[in-house]
Amino acid sequence: MTTTTRSRVVAITGGARGIGFHTAQELIRCGHQVAIGDIDEIKLKSAAEDLGVEVAVRLDVTDPKSISAFLDATEDALGPIDVLINNAGVMPTGHVHQEPDEVTRRQVEINVLGVIFGTKLALQRMLPRRRGHIINTASLAGELPVPGLATYCGTKFAVIGFTEAARLEYRKSGVRLSTVRPTFTNTELVSGTSGAKGMRNAEPQEIARATAALIERPQPYVRVTRAAGSMVAAMKFVPEKIATRLGAILGTDTVFLDRVDTAARHAYLERVSRS
């Protein structure tokens, strides 16, 4: 259990569902003041009621003005933001050559630009106070490539690289930057997929607890789950031929290609394309 030393003001993007919602729930349980933003207004309203939060703002992370409005609303209601969690993200699957250009663009805009815009805007508020913490949700797919998720992997590699460079840039500023790197997690993002053989998916509550712990004990990054994180770290030292063979054994070379239930993913992909 995470023990909160003091209450913090935390703003979470993509907070109406999945990892974002469960993170909000965990942080509220820990005694923090939480604001959520999400592009889905209907889901946002129900999430706000379920969580009992005062600040729930329609948010388009691809638009810096929308992010600024979300941060303004948070600070107007709750006070200066101590923690921004850039959590919003999308994960279409499939072969690169078949991916529509608009789907590619959407992933880059939400997963990369949304994080960069959010980080910049939070820094502008936190740096004069010489305190704050920006937590960017990446993925273990940002460390270990996965067939069928080429664009998604590219965006998460970008999030890790961006955050690490910014962390070093502002290491003496009083503002901390971190990444949370989940394995595939049982939310809508993985609907219609079966996961790797012998490796369980994480539950969103696990990512939430890891994020809460990261707020209390800041570090550059945290991998979740421990088993998946250890495997990803170890794979960096495995020769390519062996890594490829292991991928075939675990099924990671087909889990997001040939083994996808497209019907089960239809609703998620429709929602992503409309957002």
Structure description:
This protein is of the alpha/beta class. Helix content is 48%, strand content 13%. The protein has one domain (9-274): Rossmann fold. It has helices spanning 18-29, 41-51, 64-78, 101-126, 150-169, 204-216, 226-235, 240-250, 262-274; strands spanning 9-13, 33-38, 55-58, 83-86, 132-137, 175-182, 221-224. Strands 3-2-1-4-5-6-7 form a seven-stranded parallel sheet, sandwiched between helices. Strand 5 (132-137), helix 5 and strand 6 (175-182) form a beta-alpha-beta unit. The longest helix has 26 residues, at 101-126. It is globular. The two termini are 35 Å apart.
H/I helix tally = 9
CATH homologous superfamily placement: NAD(P)-binding Rossmann-like Domain
**What is the CATH class name?**
Alpha Beta
Shape: globular
Q: What is the residue-averaged pLDDT?
A: 94
Topology overview:
Blueprint: E1 9-13, H1 18-29, E2 33-38, H2 41-51, E3 55-58, H3 64-78, E4 83-86, H4 101-126, E5 132-137, H5 150-169, E6 175-182, H6 204-216, E7 221-224, H7 226-235, H8 240-250, H9 262-274
Parallel strand pairs: 1-2, 1-4, 2-3, 4-5, 5-6, 6-7
Helix pairs in contact: 1-6, 3-4, 4-5
Short key terms for the protein model shown above:
globular, alpha/beta, seven-stranded parallel sheet, 275 residues, Rossmann fold, 9 helices
Describe the structure concisely.
This protein has 275 residues and is of the alpha/beta class. It contains nine helices and seven strands, in the order E-H-E-H-E-H-E-H-E-H-E-H-E-H-H-H.
